[in-house]
Design a protein that fits this description.
By secondary structure, the chain is an alpha+beta fold. The protein has 14 helices and eight strands. Strand 5 and strand 6 form a beta hairpin. Helix 4 packs across helix 7, helix 11 crosses helix 14 and helix 12 runs antiparallel to helix 14.
């Protein structure tokens, strides 16, 4: 028996098994239903028949037939999808690009286009053509078949127009190949990142620092104006991405958005600190001291601006994804390094601290231990007793073995994941 649900009436009924299948492709699918709220027949239920399993080159995606059939002109929303049903896999199989299909599936959920960051634009166009997706919603409503009034129709059309504009702005900000203007915008963004990093470096030079800090310097206003213009550009780009992002939560889950916020935060904190200092009646030295502490903490985040380059390079994004996949292997290396460091740092402290002032604490011993294990060997802290030299020889020998064993695993994992991610972006 197959449990089947009528989507029009939302009625669950049982029908006899069809040996030929439905539309020639459902003969081996066994349907079942799961109650979400116990035995009460009035409670909502989930019918397995409503779930669509899609296998894309070995990766399984699960969605609902209802969401697919909202777009009947597409491949997945039409009965033509049955030609791709594989009974052995109990799923629809497509030998297509997996990275692109995530964006294809996102279309059925939102109705908007969000191209994958790791796929070539030409490949993305090919995938859209294969699945017959045009990214335009048809809100034409028949007067004879619909009871929706004119006000609702106008609202739907306006929402469609707003959604299309949001999508266009989103593509403009994230995809430099979406248009020539987008290419110019991203080029200017990269140029301003370089200017910002150059200012960050020059500000610490003793000979140039006066141009950045002394308001009476003739170059101060020019440099401050350039810096303010650059920050304003970064702010406009960030705010535009915030209002055109698919969802509020997904915006905050994107690490690059967080880095962009932290990179411009010091500038605005500095302005607030200057304004608060002018309105204070306390001693100037105390005001400057508090302001200096705040700015000193915030200036650390300015270093983050260099990571804005990653957002403009697909290869760097790919490397970041590879590092995330290899986090377990990297975590193993960190744990082993910590164990070896604390163990031999403590041993060296107890062996050397009575006759060697350089090892005056276990912390100092751990510093020597990690420098020795990693075969760096600065030489500012060295053992002086025969016992200490013996321990140092053991640590140095074990350090080579310690780095070799987990590093082999990490390199192997890194290579396999990199090739897999690179292949997904080119398929």
């Amino acid at each position: 028996m197959i449990i089947r649900r009528n989507s029009a009436t939302n009625h669950v009924s049982q029908t006899s098994d069809d040996p030929q299948g439905v539309n020639g492709g459902n003969k081996s699918r066994e349907k079942s239903l799961i109650s979400l709220a116990g035995s009460d027949h009035n409670d909502p239920i989930i019918v397995a028949e409503d779930l669509c399993r899609i296998n894309v080159c070995g990766e399984l995606f699960i969605t609902t037939f209802k969401s697919l059939e909202e777009f009947p002109k597409t491949l997945l929303g039409s009965p033509e999808r049955e030609r791709y049903f594989c009974p052995e896999l109990n799923a629809y199989f497509f030998n297509r690009n997996r990275a692109c299909f995530e964006s294809i599936l996102l279309y059925y959920q939102t109705g908007d286009e969000y191209p994958p960051l790791t796929a070539d634009l030409d490949l993305w166009e090919e995938e859209k053509a294969f699945f017959r997706i045009s990214f335009t919603k048809d809100y034409a409503i028949s007067i004879e078949d619909s009871e929706i009034d004119d006000i609702t129709c106008v609202a739907l059309c306006q929402n469609n127009s707003i959604s299309a504009k949001r999508k266009a702005v989103h593509d403009f900000l994230l995809n430099p190949r979406s248009s020539k203007i987008a290419t110019v915008w991203h080029s200017v963004d990269i140029m301003f990142i370089c200017v910002s990093i150059a200012f960050l470096i020059m500000e610490t030079d003793p000979g140039l620092k006066i141009h950045f800090t002394d308001k009476s310097d003739p170059y101060y206003n020019t440099i401050y104006g350039i810096n303010a213009f650059v920050i304003a550009f970064f702010t406009i780009d960030l705010v535009a991405r915030f209002f055109t992002w698919p969802t509020f939560c997904s915006f905050w889950k994107n690490i690059f958005n967080i880095l962009d916020i932290l990179s411009i935060l010091p500038f605005y904190v500095g302005i607030i600190a200057d304004m608060s200092a002018e309105g204070q009646s306390m001693e100037m030295t105390e005001v400057e001291s508090k302001r200096y502490v705040v700015l000193r903490v915030c200036r650390i985040f300015r270093i983050i601006r260099i990571f804005k380059f990653v957002r403009h390079s697909q290869d760097l994004i790919l490397i970041v994804r590879v590092v995330v996949h290899a986090k377990k292997e990297l975590g193993l290396l960190v744990v082993l390094l910590g164990i070896f460091t604390v163990t031999f740092g403590s041993i060296m402290y107890y062996v050397e601290h009575e006759v060697n002032d350089q090892f005056n604490s276990i912390m100092q011993g751990c510093w020597w231990s990690i420098v020795t294990i990693t075969t760096v060997g600065y030489g500012e802290v060295v053992p002086s007793t025969p016992g200490g030299k013996f321990v140092g020889s053991v640590v140095l020998t074990l350090g080579i073995v310690f780095l070799a064993l987990p590093m082999t695993i990490i390199v192997s994992k890194f290579s396999s994941v990199y090739e897999k991610e690179k292949g997904d972006s080119k398929d």
